[in-house]
Design a protein that fits this description.
6-stranded mixed beta sheet; 9-stranded antiparallel beta sheet; Porin
């Protein structure tokens, strides 16, 4: 029987009139679940106590599981309160994780993906990758930086403005990257994503990727309860597997992805702009 444990989290913080600072740490169970019984199911073939031999019951205890793995996250944050500015501040936080991705990107597993014209970009994020040969978990390194500065002293406090940015980097070591690339070839380059067939040609199978962005927000307060805000954000995905190709099987080709046509997409970096306009009236008692 496999025993799980909750995340253990600790922090040390100091708050002063001019600044606040904090150090954080978390321990996270990055162990994998039971092996699948056959390679066709996307997992490691196994039998009781034997890795690499076909089993019979999908996801069962008879297939065993990889050796337990402990992940962790560490971070530091700093906020500086700007004097004589009616609440303006600058703050920054850095997080470093191994086998605990959710502490850098608020999610334990994730997928980034963009399609534009005949190009696509993507990246997979997880706590760790199971090595088919050794049965161990190679933890994924995820780190991130977030920073923001907010000013409240324009036009006598009626106009607020801010600038913010972020960077997220997901890194797989050589063993983990090889474990991801192997099934891309082993299963005839066929991967199932969200119910739609995807053919992947790993011309350059390198699954580390990063995402960064910078934005600004402006808000004008007509009254304390009635204001208008405008946000703009530029974001860039430095894709995994740059130089490869993806063929999506869209709704017109027997797939379940009708939003995009069935065609070959070149894997390249992607970027996007986001805009938001918000008008709010608070209903006060």
């Amino acid at each position: 029987m496999k025993i799980r444990f909750p995340d253990l989290v600790a922090n040390l913080r100091i708050d002063q009139a001019l600044y606040s600072a904090q150090l954080m740490f978390a321990a996270h169970d990055a162990s994998a679940a039971y092996y699948y019984s056959t390679l066709a199911n996307g997992g490691v073939a196994c039998a009781p106590g034997t890795l690499g031999v076909a089993g019979s019951i999908i996801g069962s205890e008879v297939c065993g599981h990889p050796a337990d793995k402990l992940g962790y996250a560490a971070g530091a944050g700093l906020r500086i309160n700007l004097p004589n500015t009616s609440g303006s501040y600058f703050q920054i936080q850095y997080n470093y994780t191994q086998g605990a991705a959710k502490y850098a990107d608020q999610t334990q597993t994730g997928f980034w993906g963009y399609i534009r014209g005949g190009t696509a970009g993507f990246g997979f994020m997880s706590d760790g990758i199971v090595n088919n040969a050794t049965g161990t978990v190679d933890v994924t390194r995820v780190q991130g930086v977030n920073a923001a500065s907010d000013w409240h002293n324009w036009l006598g406090g009626k106009l607020w403005s801010s600038i913010y940015g972020h960077w997220l980097g997901v890194s797989y070591d050589g063993i983990a990257n090889a474990s991801i690339c192997q099934p891309m070839n082993l299963f005839n380059n066929v991967i199932l994503t969200a119910g739609a067939g995807t053919l992947f040609n790993p011309t350059n199978c390198a699954n580390s990727f990063s995402v960064w962005g910078i934005g600004s927000r402006w808000q004008y307060n007509f009254t304390p309860a009635f204001y208008l805000g405008f946000d703009v954000l530029y974001q860039k995905l430095v894709t995994a597997d740059s130089g490869g190709t993806i063929t999506l099987l869209g709704g017109g080709n027997g797939g379940t992805n009708p939003a995009n046509p069935s065609t070959v997409y070149q894997v390249t970096n992607q970027d996007q702009w986001q805009f938001r306009l918000r008008l709010q009236r608070d209903i006060l008692p």
